[in-house]
Amino acid sequence: MSGVGPRLAEIASSGRAALVGYLPAGFPSVDESVSLVSAMVDAGVDVVEIGLPYSDPVMDGATIQDAVEVALAGGTRTRHVLAVVEAVAGLAPTLVMTYWNPVERYGVERFASDLSSAGGAGLITPDLIPDEAPEWLAASRRHDLDRVFLVAPSSTRERLVTATDACRGFVYATAVMGVTGARGAVGAEASGLVARAKEVTDLPVGVGLGVSTGRQAAEVAGYADAVIVGSALVAAVQRAADPADARHRVAALAAELARGVRGEL
Q1: What are the residue numbers of the active site?
Q2: Fewer CB in a 10 Å sphere around the end CB: N or C, the chain?
Q3: CATH number, residue 246
């Protein structure tokens, strides 16, 4: 089983969904992003996503775009992302969420090797489809890494089969068509998408895009194997007065979300 797979299986055996938390590396600084990840894991996050800052984040809404701009302006580069992964991978299974261009520029084989050496579990690649990923599929196999592709409400059954067959670790189901961002309600099509994905794969299916509260996390945990939260955690940092307040806010939100997936709300 993959790096994320054993953790998700362990959580499923306890009768609940997993909580996946995202934060960009280098936001608001490299060192502080490590502290923030540590705080959210301590508060109940089961699997970590580290965002690789990119200048053209087409899938991300304003909240994450603003955070990524801070990281890039502060000098965060791929080597710093890998350093963050190395610093936190011992806390929880850790995936890198990245657009494909930075990986291609770094070198696919080199990236896979360095990610594995850092203790990373694999990649989530929102703008890469399996049809265009032969180099990544081969490198991930050589280095025993997870590969998480996205499916959407618009995905046909044929596309669901193609995407889920190429996944390892879990399948990322986007709750809505559009960019990331906290929403007042999770997309109504999310549960149907999860059901359709489960018709064609035995892999766990996680739902992201829009979850921002413990109540929403509890709702999604009722039909998904993992609840993925990003923008709400980033926004908690953006509202903070100082680094200590940022850690407190991230921990408080992560704890609320964890209570949601555990059915404690």
Answers
A1: 49, 60
A2: N
A3: 3.20.20.70
Q: Where are the beta strands (DSSP E) in the chain?
A: 18-24, 47-51, 94-97, 122-124, 146-148, 150-151, 171-174, 205-208, 226-229
Which domain covers residue 90, as residue numbers? 18-261
Residues 171 and 191 sit within 8 Å (Cβ to Cβ): no
Measured between alpha carbons, how far is 18 from 207 in angstroms, rounded to an integer?
10
On whether the pTM is more than 0.70, the answer is yes
Residue 108 lies in a domain: yes
* Domain annotation covers residue 49: yes
Query: What are 75-116's pLDDT values in tens digits?
Result: 999 999 999 999 999 999 999 999 999 999 999 999 999 999
* Polymer length in residues for the chain: 265
Look at residue 7 and tell me if it is in a domain. no
Examine residue 58 and state whether it is found in any structural domain, yes or no.
Answer: yes
Q: What whole-number distance in Å separates Cα of residue 46 and Cα of residue 69?
A: 27
**pLDDT > 70? residue 142:** yes
First CA to last CA distance, the chain = 32
Q: How many domains does the chain have?
A: 1
Q: What angle do CA 209, 92, 68 make, to 5 degrees?
A: 45
d(CA 261, CA 216): 9
